[in-house]
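Subject: mismatched residue count in predicted assembly?

I count 613 residues in my input, but I want to confirm that the predicted structure covers every chain. Input:
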Amino acid sequence: MTLVTLPIVIPLLAAAISSMLGSFPRVRRWLGVVALLANTVASVILLTRVADGSIHVVHVGNWDWPLGITLVADPLAAIMVAVSAVMLLAVLVYAIGSPKTEDTFTFFHPVYLILAAGVSASFLTGDLFNLFVAFEITLTASYVLITFGGAREQVRHGITYIVISLVASSLFITAVALVYAATGTVNMADLSLKLAEIDPGLRAGLGALFLVVFGIKAAIFPLFFWLPDSYPTAPSPVTAIFAGLLTKVGVYAIIRTHTLLFGESGPSTVLLVIASLTMIVGVLGAIAQNDVKRILSFHIISQIGYMIFGLGLFTVAGLAATVFYVVHHIIVKTTLFLVGGLIEERTGTASLRYLGGMLHLSPVLAVLFLLPALSLAGIPPLSGFVAKLGLVQAGLEIGSYPTVIVSLVVSALTLFSMTKIWAGVFWGKPEAVRVGDQGRMRLAPLMLAPTVFLVAASLAFVVAAAPLYELGRTAAEALIDPATYISAVTQR
Amino acid sequence: MTLVLVLTVGVLYGCGVYLILQRNLSRIVIGLAMIGHGANLLLLVAGGRAGEAPIAGVGEAPFADPLPQALALTAIVITFGVSAFLLTLAYRSWMLSQSDEVEDDVEDRRIAEKTLERRGR
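Triage response: the counts match. Full output below for your records.
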């Protein structure tokens, strides 16, 4: 049962050791890689244990339920922990290969490991206040990562990000205090039982407050404005891991609270409307942009809409599609940002105005970009297609036609803006490329290897789509009927 | 006593929101700190009436609820750390731009420039 704690304990311990290894950069690198590798192994073993739908529970410090902090690994949490562990490892290798990341910032490794621990803790916790603490661990590490180097642009955009996050955190504390005043507990399983008994109006109000809190973190409409502003200024590995994981922590929290605490039976019109608007606004924003990283940042928002769409349907099929979509998105989005970083590394710019002809300069990069980009747009047979098909089918089953139509139109527009990057970056004459003093003729193998690995992973994801979709369905079944979750937590 | 606390929470949130909406970074920092204090007080209020120190075997019931105090303590530590970070960032921002104002959004500036160009034509 200690397995559940490992994805939090391993990175946290490694971070502590890593912070003392300032004068041994080489040891520090190996420590980071080994720790995250161990973390990945532990997470995957955890996933295989809960893949049959069972739920593992640890009461930290052996306190009687519901007094202590509970860690809960249900299928959804285990899937998220395992996927994020793989991403964290791949991006760490990329960061080690990338010359700009480590050299300018001595504390990169410890802070990155703390981020890893925070992300795992957010997924595994079964306690509302502990979720707040896990969020703060993740966010504080992200504040440091997004502003490190201290360049003017980074400070300017970092301040927006930090102030917005702090406002969300204050709202989170407020929401926790109000929930505690209403029910007298912060344990999620206990809350699930007690919230059902309180006044429905009060319950809806608290639910709305939590939706705002997690909506800011997940960047749903209309709370997304901070994201495209702050993400692109950070170094590529940092942006990639933020794009892949941080908004998804918010999405996970929305899924968890909506299914366990504030769920109604049947589809939620509010969530479906929010989902449609998020999809549309995100993709329109992406079309208007002229910089690879900014385009990709707007796409994060539009993709969040799809995840909320599946949750809003509130059926097993919809939730299964959402789980599949989240995993697909984490892999593909991280890869695209890593490729964006490689383009920038190769040419010294990410602006479409100055780029062109990369197809001749670097055909490998073209392939590495094309596969995840087509997957993002939902072209068969890539993973994005499977995910979107699942969502559309689930939507048609319920008869939620407007959202289905919106999701189809938005995926066409996604394809349009991906072709815009393709035309701007890869087509054209190679002479147009300004290989400035920042550009390098050869790409670092340590940056290329994780990118290739993730592209291969997204392809393998398609091949193994059927069993993975089954896993998503197991997770969805556990989500839609919280009785198993509650009974697993309440009896030790 | 509870009413006084509730009013204090309201005033702290109100002042905090007002300060966050200002353009000066130092005011935003103070505003965030005030909202943080408000939230901590709210946690205490959420714990119900005051009572004896909640130590097992000492004193007589009714005890005060110890959990909100533990929560508030955690929240205070987190707010403290993050405020310190935000202050250093504000100082860095002041070093770089010699002003305390939060700079314009890049996108806003771009749109504003385009509008001016169009009008110029």
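DSSP finds 21 helices and two strands in chain A. Marking this ticket as 'not a bug'.
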